[in-house]
């Protein structure tokens, strides 16, 4: 049986005052490897200053529909005593590259309780989806300036993979109205 | 997660289906965990995994020229581009995984020859100018399709597409820049560019798939907001943009019937050779065997690597528990 | 700058760049063929970085003698290339590739750290840029060596085999090129002797922690960069085939 390694959800922070956002997932063997991999996949282009990874199976998710239907339990609950939970939320149906954004932490005994607390705490916008993550399951990239320089800054110099680098190519479509496909054929 | 993939035999199916379709009409995104028809899920898995396979197999024709790129810059650009295709495959497998299908299973289907991928990648890259032409035409055609899919109703697929489109624009532009440069270059460069256009034009038009009347899935896909345009609409957009630009560059297109239609503002093309298309789809293209073989080899040769890291992680887990 | 120093610096920059070009070439042979998508992408990052480093080193040479980087890369033959033999060896399996990249990255990271205070400003500036990327490379390849070494019996065996093969070749990284002592005396580049000590210490510790057997009988240790393995000719024939295909072409 093949293994593609476990899946880890990746949260990327674009700049220091923006929230971490769910950008996708990576397949990796262990936490350190998952962080390195997340950097390799999701920081090929700017912007990033920090990344978090969480094993996909350690995430508890609820959509608005599930909440409305009162589906409050999520399989076997994570066996935790009282602890911190990270809360992520999606608030818009607009087209986007990212899913849920980090909004803060709550203290709770179970993911279900964390969800209830999150609903009571983060009331500034309608939640279309919630992700609740036990804090001890989150692995974070090193916040030192040295690591930020080495992991995230170089992408800014790789201008050849940004479309603006080729901006002046060709002319606009509106200029072309007449002509036959083969008129220039030798 | 309780499975909520509805089937018509469910007592509340029609009611839920109406709700579901109303959500799509309102422009809401369907997210993992939401109720959806099993058929919606099935169609998405089919489309997304095919799309992912196409990105991954699509690395091969261009990848073959990385070691022969003519300048340091072109080499870097090409590595970045082929790398992006791997990234696109990676994002798309992720989107499919949210529907409860594993990457292991999707890859197994690909390697067993049971899964489809875009047949354009079963054509060979014969010269360096093919690299520019693929970027301009093949990525150009892909962008048209992907821009449409970025609006699709399934959240994870839509998000993957938004990310992919942003990257794909670079692919398109670097290819176009190259072809335009060679079209104005030396006689040999010009000839190389023209030859590449001649070989890739028709396969690029086939990329959008059969004509609408021959495309059985289109209706349901449009109704559920997976596709928002038909194959022929997307094909027309592609031709309208690319045909005039190629002609303006002083290159020709291998279609004697191609003409601009004043009334509709469309560039009309001659008949597409669908026999060739189906030949390639059904495994008889020039490169079908080689492409699949390359994927199989990479997968087989990587098996011990994947096992090693899994073993390492298991050992570390044990030590962590012991401590 | 005295002309002997200038000549030596040109030669050193060429050697630095040639190493990166050929190493990147070998790495790029994996693109599309890696053991898993994520690692295909990861190695392609390293390849792009190393090509970028080569471009920077050739660029510094260009400032000194006006030579064009692409001319140097695509129109010099095996007689003219000054890469070390380690980077020329065929790509081998994933263990071979990761180990070579690790041994090279460790050398490069240590060299850069020591070259930060070069008295030659343009070089010191380039070092700052390159160093950021090499820190990450080293983290990445170090992680791979540890995991393959401690993974399965098979991965350990393959890694050990790669090490036995590469160890002697890697020593060439610390052989000064003719005239290098002039550059060291001027504080332009670091002395390779103490660097070698640090490299040996770091690599030995990490490799042993990964469960590999050291010391190793190094066997053949190349010294001159004027001669190469039997592979370089073919690498260049392939790499330069498009650039040389059209004698009239000025731009690509
Ligand atoms: Fe793509
Ligand atoms: Fe480097
Ligand atoms: Fe490196």
From TrEMBL, chain A:
Pfam families named among the record's database cross-references: PaaB
- What is the official name of this protein in its record? Phenylacetic acid degradation protein
Which organism encodes this protein?
Meiothermus hypogaeus NBRC 106114
TrEMBL record, chain B:
Which UniProt keyword terms apply here? Answer: Oxidoreductase
Claim: Oxidoreductase is one of the keywords in the record = yes
- Offer an example of a GO molecular function term for this protein: phenylacetyl-CoA 1,2-epoxidase activity
- The catalytic activity of this protein is classed by the Enzyme Commission as 1.14.13.149
| Parts forming coiled coils | none
Name the enzyme's class: oxidoreductase
| NCBIfam families to which the protein is assigned, alphabetical | PA_CoA_Oxy1
The molecule here is called 1,2-phenylacetyl-CoA epoxidase, subunit A
Q: Which gene encodes it?
A: paaA
TrEMBL record, chain C:
GO cellular-component terms in the record? Answer: cytosol
Record's superkingdom? Answer: Bacteria
Gene3D superfamilies of this UniProt entry?
1.20.1260.10
Q: Kindly give the PANTHER family that the UniProt entry links to this protein.
A: 1,2-PHENYLACETYL-COA EPOXIDASE, SUBUNIT C (PTHR30458:SF0), PHENYLACETIC ACID DEGRADATION PROTEIN PAA (PTHR30458)
What NCBIfam families would the database entry show?
PA_CoA_Oxy3 (TIGR02158)
Q: Quote the InterPro entries the UniProt record gives.
A: Aromatic_CoA_ox/epox, Ferritin-like, Ferritin-like_SF, PaaA_PaaC, PaaC
Q: Which GO terms describe its biological process?
A: phenylacetate catabolic process
Descriptive protein name: Phenylacetate-CoA oxygenase subunit PaaI
Q: Which organism is it from?
A: Meiothermus hypogaeus NBRC 106114
**Pfam families documented for this protein:** PaaA_PaaC
């Amino acid at each position: 049986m093949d293994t593609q390694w476990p899946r880890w959800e990746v949260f990327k922070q674009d700049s220091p005052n923006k929230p971490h956002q769910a950008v996708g997932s990576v397949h990796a063997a262990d936490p350190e490897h998952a962080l390195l991999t997340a950097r390799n996949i999701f920081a090929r282009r700017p912007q990033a200053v920090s990344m978090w990874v969480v094993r996909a199976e350690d995430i508890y998710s609820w959509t608005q529909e599930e909440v409305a239907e009162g589906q409050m339990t999520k399989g076997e609950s994570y066996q935790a005593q009282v602890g911190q939970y990270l809360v992520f939320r999606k608030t818009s149906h607009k087209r986007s590259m990212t899913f849920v954004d980090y909004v803060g932490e709550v203290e709770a005994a179970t993911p279900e309780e964390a969800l209830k607390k999150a609903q009571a705490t983060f009331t500034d916008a309608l939640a279309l989806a919630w992700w609740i993550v036990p804090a001890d399951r989150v692995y974070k990239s090193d916040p030192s300036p040295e690591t930020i320089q080495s992991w995230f800054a170089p992408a800014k110099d790789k201008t050849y993979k940004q479309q603006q680098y080729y901006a002046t190519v060709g002319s606009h479509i509106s200029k072309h109205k007449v002509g036959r496909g083969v008129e220039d054929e030798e | 997660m309780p499975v909520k993939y509805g089937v018509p035999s469910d007592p509340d199916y029609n009611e839920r289906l109406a709700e579901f379709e109303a959500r799509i009409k309102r422009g809401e995104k369907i997210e993992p965990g939401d109720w959806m028809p099993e058929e919606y899920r099935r169609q998405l898995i089919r489309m997304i995994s095919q799309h992912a396979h196409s990105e991954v197999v699509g690395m091969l024709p261009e990848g073959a020229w990385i070691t022969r790129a003519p300048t340091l810059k072109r080499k870097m650009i090409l590595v970045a581009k082929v790398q992006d295709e791997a990234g696109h495959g990676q994002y798309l497998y992720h989107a499919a995984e949210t529907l409860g299908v594993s990457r292991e299973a999707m890859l197994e289907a690909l390697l067993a020859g049971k899964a489809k991928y875009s047949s354009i990648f079963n054509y060979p890259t014969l010269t360096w100018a093919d690299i520019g032409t693929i970027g301009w035409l093949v990525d150009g055609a892909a962008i048209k399709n992907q821009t449409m899919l970025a609006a699709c109703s399934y959240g994870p697929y839509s998000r993957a597409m938004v990310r992919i489109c942003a990257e794909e624009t670079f692919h398109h532009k670097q290819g176009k820049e190259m072809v335009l440069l060679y079209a104005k270059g030396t006689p040999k460069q010009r000839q190389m560019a023209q030859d590449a256009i001649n070989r890739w034009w028709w396969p690029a038009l086939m990329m959008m798939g059969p004509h609408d009347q021959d495309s059985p899935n289109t209706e349901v896909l449009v109704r559920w907001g997976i596709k928002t345009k038909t194959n022929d609409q997307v094909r027309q957009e592609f031709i309208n943009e690319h045909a005039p630009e190629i002609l303006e560059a002083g290159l020709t297109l291998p279609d004697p019937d191609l003409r601009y239609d004043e009334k509709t503002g469309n560039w009309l093309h001659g008949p597409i050779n669908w026999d060739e298309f189906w030949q390639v789809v059904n495994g008889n293209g020039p490169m079908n065997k080689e492409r699949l073989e390359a994927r199989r080899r990479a997968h087989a040769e990587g098996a011990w690597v994947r096992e090693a890291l899994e073993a390492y992680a298991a050992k570390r887990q044990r030590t962590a528990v012991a401590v | 700058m005295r002309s002997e120093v200038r000549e030596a610096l040109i030669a050193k920059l060429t050697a630095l760049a040639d190493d990166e070009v050929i190493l990147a070439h070998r790495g790029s042979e994996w693109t599309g063929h890696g053991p898993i998508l994520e690692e295909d992408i990861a190695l392609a990052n390293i390849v792009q970085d190393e090509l970028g480093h080569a471009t920077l080193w050739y660029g510094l040479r260009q400032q000194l003698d006006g030579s064009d980087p692409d001319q140097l890369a695509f129109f010099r033959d095996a007689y003219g290339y000054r890469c070390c033999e380690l980077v020329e060896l065929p790509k081998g399996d994933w263990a071979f590739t990761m180990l070579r990249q690790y041994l090279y990255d460790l050398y490069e990271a240590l060299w850069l750290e020591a070259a930060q205070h070069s008295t030659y400003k343009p070089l010191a500036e380039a070092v700052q840029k390159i160093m950021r990327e090499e820190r990450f490379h080293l983290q990445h390849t170090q992680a791979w060596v540890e995991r393959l070494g401690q993974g399965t019996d098979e991965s350990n065996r393959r890694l050990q085999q790669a090490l036995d093969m590469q160890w002697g070749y890697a020593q060439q990284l610390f052989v000064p090129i003719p005239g290098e002592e002039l550059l060291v005396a001027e504080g332009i580049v670091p002395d390779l002797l103490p660097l070698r000590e640090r490299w040996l210490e770091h690599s030995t510790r990490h490799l042993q922690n990964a469960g590999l057997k050291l010391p190793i009988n190094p066997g053949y240790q190349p010294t001159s960069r004027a001669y190469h393995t039997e592979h370089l000719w073919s690498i260049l024939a392939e790499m330069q085939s498009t650039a040389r295909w059209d004698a009239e072409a000025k731009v690509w």
